[in-house]
């Protein structure tokens, strides 16, 4: 049975440390070098609750330095905007200037190519994946709870889109354009293959531990322009599908309506069945809040049979 931990509090640094302490050896035993921590820096500006708080990543690094020996730790992201600017603007440079931890821009990385499908045309195409993540022996995803303009929600699994270098190739996952650039009939056509493309990325790059910061999350027209919503907790676990499933449920959604969560479970990456997930503390369902979905939510449900 998959285990997921929830730590409550207003400080993302303290919440993250609590999560990792709760996990104990189950977290420490996953650590190998080179280790990559992958935040979600979708914006290179200080838009509230759009990007991962550097305090979360600092807590992960500090915990590892105190509890384990990892020779190489890299913080790596490929922002849809300017990754270097994002590191500076969001406070990552200042947060890690005293540590021997590299801040790497995946948009400038060497790549390996995988097969996906163009969601608009249905034709096969290639997609580049940053070699930093392919070569990592341990990947920690440090994302957030946000609604999304194509996938209903975005959390740990969807965070791996940052492994795709450059805005052009990120668009190709959706159909050559970002969702808000599509007419409704085009948007409908892309849903199925968009979710399959997220699965293909997660099959090639596996998350070893997933952390979701919900001290500040986002509802409405996420992942960039939605409304901030402060929940004051964090979620963590070694099963990235289970962590996303718990996160989706706490946002008021059925995890199985999110296509890539369903597909990742079907591909044996993890479990989305809440009955098969042990969550600590036991009264965690009391944290559930109904999020306002994206305005195109009615078009997003992935059609499948459980």
Mean pLDDT, to the nearest integer, reads 97
> What level of helicity do the residues show?
25-40%
CATH fold-level assignment: Rossmann fold
Radius of gyration: 18 Å
N-end to C-end Cα span: 19 Å
State the low-pLDDT regions, or none. Answer: none
CATH architecture: 3-Layer(aba) Sandwich
Q: Which helices and strands appear, and what pairs or packs with what?
A:
Blueprint: E1 2-8, H1 12-23, H2 25-28, E2 35-39, H3 54-67, E3 73-77, H4 83-89, H5 92-96, E4 102-105, E5 111-117, E6 124-130, H6 131-135, E7 138-148, E8 152-154, H7 167-174, H8 184-204, E9 209-219, E10 227-229, E11 233-237, H9 240-250, H10 259-266, E12 277-280
Parallel strand pairs: 1-12, 2-3, 2-7, 3-4, 7-9
Antiparallel strand pairs: 1-11, 5-6, 7-8, 9-10, 9-11
Helix pairs in contact: 1-3, 8-10
């Amino acid at each position: 049975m998959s285990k997921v931990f929830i730590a409550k509090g207003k400080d993302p640094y303290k919440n993250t440390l609590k999560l990792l302490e709760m996990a104990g050896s189950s977290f420490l035993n996953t650590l190998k070098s080179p280790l990559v921590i992958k935040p979600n820096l979708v914006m290179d500006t200080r838009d509230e609750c759009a990007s991962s708080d550097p305090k979360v990543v600092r807590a992960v690094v500090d915990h590892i330095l105190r509890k384990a020996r990892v020779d190489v730790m890299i913080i790596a992201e490929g922002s849809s905007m300017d990754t270097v600017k994002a590191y500076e603007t969001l406070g990552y440079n200042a947060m890690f200037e005293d540590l021997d931890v590299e801040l790497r821009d995946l948009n400038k990385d060497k790549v390996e190519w995988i097969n996906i499908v163009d969601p608009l045309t249905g034709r096969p195409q290639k997609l580049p994946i940053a070699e930093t993540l392919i070569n990592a022996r341990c990947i920690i995803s440090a994302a957030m709870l946000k609604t999304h303009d194509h996938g209903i929600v975005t959390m740990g699994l969807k965070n791996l889109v940052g492994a795709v270098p450059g805005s052009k190739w990120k668009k190709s996952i959706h159909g050559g354009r970002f969702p808000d650039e599509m007419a409704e009939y085009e948007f409908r056509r892309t849903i199925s293959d968009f979710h399959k493309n997220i699965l293909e990325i997660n099959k090639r790059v596996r998350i070893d531990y997933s952390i979701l910061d919900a001290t500040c999350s986002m509802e409405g027209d996420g992942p960039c322009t939605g409304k901030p919503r402060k929940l004051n907790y964090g979620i963590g676990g070694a099963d990235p599908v289970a962590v996303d499933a718990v996160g989706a449920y706490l946002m008021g959604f059925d995890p199985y309506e999110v296509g890539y969560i369903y597909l990742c479970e079907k591909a044996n990456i993890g479990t989305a069945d809440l009955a098969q997930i042990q969550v600590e503390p036991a009264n965690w369902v009391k944290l559930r809040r109904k999020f306002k979905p994206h305005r195109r939510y009615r078009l997003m449900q992935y059609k499948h049979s459980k």
